[in-house]
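pasting for the record
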Amino acid sequence: MAPPEYEAKKRRQRSDYGYHQVHQTRWFDNDMYAHLNNTVYTALFDTIANTYLIKECGMDPFSVNNPTEKKNAPQEQGQLSVGTDHIGLIVSTHADFFASVRFPDTLEVGLRVVKLSSSSVTWEIGVFRQGEEAVKMVGTYIHVFCLRETMRVGKGGMPEGVRRGLEKLIEGPQEHAKL
């Protein structure tokens, strides 16, 4: 018999996730068994979590080469400025599979925060086939925020702007959810 948390994940719905992305599968996403290769799921985790960190939490991985340029650039209205001293390191991933997807499926990927600590976030990602209600896969993904220079958690944990952005996803769907 499956553990209760497995059965609970199997009942997930799109509305359980506060941030969404659409992903068009590609021919080479299929493996030799004609379903999405496991590595593609990991790429989906990485893509939606980092998109959220960039768009909603103000993290800018592209300012690494010239952090001075970013700090001196005029800020767009409403844009958070986190700086480049923190990065998120992946320390754990896990996936529970309920049904296969494959090319040429269009997927709807959902994201929410299931745990937020002083220096880490545990994401949950749900993968749905467009037009179908049953979840196909639910994964977890843990980021630990540390100082880029030392690769260790800094005093105070994650930047406050990142924390504020992540808090928006703790309670499920939010008004800022996007497809």
